[in-house]
Structure formats: C-alpha cells, structure tokens
Write a structure and sequence with these properties.
The structure is a single chain. The chain is α+β, with helices and mostly antiparallel strands. About 45% of the residues lie in helices and about 20% in strands. A hairpin with a 2-residue loop joins strand 5 and strand 6.
Amino acid sequence: MGILQYFGLALQKLTPREKDLCIKLGFDEELMRLLKTETSNSLNIENSNFIEAAVSETKSEQAYIIIKNCKKRFSEKGMCLFAHSEEDSETRVVTFKANKESDIINYTGTTGKTPGTSNETLAKLLDKWDGLFDFSIQGAGSDWMQLEVTTLPEDQEAFAEEVFAVCPDIKSEIDSTDKLISSIKNSKILGFWWD
C-alpha cells in the first residue's frame, strides 16, 4: 500500500451503487474506498450463509498482499478481511462485520472431508485456539483455510497432534509434530486442505 493511500489520499471514489452498498451494510466508506483502490476493481455485495459482505476480485497473489497490509485496519473497525476462492472462481477479497475469526469460515462454509470436520466443529476449534495463541485467517474456501500464526500455544505437541487429527493430509506431507511446529515457526503460515 502506498503512503498516500495509508493516509486516505489518492483512494478511488465509490460509485453511487457502491455508496449505497456502504449505507445498506453499515460499512465504513473509507475502508471500502481502500479495498477498491487496493484491488483495482469494483465492489459488490454477496450474501453467503446469511452474512452480507463486500467483495472485490483481484489476483491471488495481490489478495494476500492486501490482507497483510490492510487486515489490521479493518479489524480495528470490527470488520474481517480475507481472501476467498473456490476451484472454479476468481480470488476475491471479502469483508464483513465480524466478532471473531471463526465468522469467516461460517461465511465460506468451510468443511473438511474427514470425520469431525464439519463447519460447526471447525468454528469451535478456531474459537478454542483463539484463547490459546495469536492467529488470523488469511484465506478460506469451502474445503481449505490458511492461517497466519504469530504465536504458538504453550503445549505445541498437543496443538500439532490436533492439527494432524483435523487435517490428515498435513501429516502425509509433514510426518512429525516437530517438523510441523518448525514449519509454522519459519513460515508463520498454517494451511488446511481437504481433498
């Protein structure tokens, strides 16, 4: 994000339709101008699982740069910000009013294909983790999610085992809890996928 954009200058203007979107959803107009500027695309309303959101398409790599640069500003105003994509769709940056990170996977309907990985179970797991360590959801879809992990829980061994239980595909690629913890410490990323 450029320095002018950070201070609210040089942000793209909203169209009358986009201004109506802000009014209808009660979204901060400056944040929506920032999102539109960062994605270089128009804003649209989408309703998923009874949650109304503002969405804007962008390239996948750009979406994660936007999330990294802007997520804190959105969360300070009670908004989540994340990348969303499905196998047959473009990557979009999505924002809506949220109380907790698990609201994101409620929106995307994220589920695993293994026992005990319903959307409700995954949401409860994220809520539990929220009290144990610092993370944020950077992206999610119907069968995947990516977390940025800034701290790890005290019992890292138990945490790693829980990750393996929720997503066995991780264990097939990273065969030990030590390697998983080392990978998270190095990359600050924890990705889940269910094939």
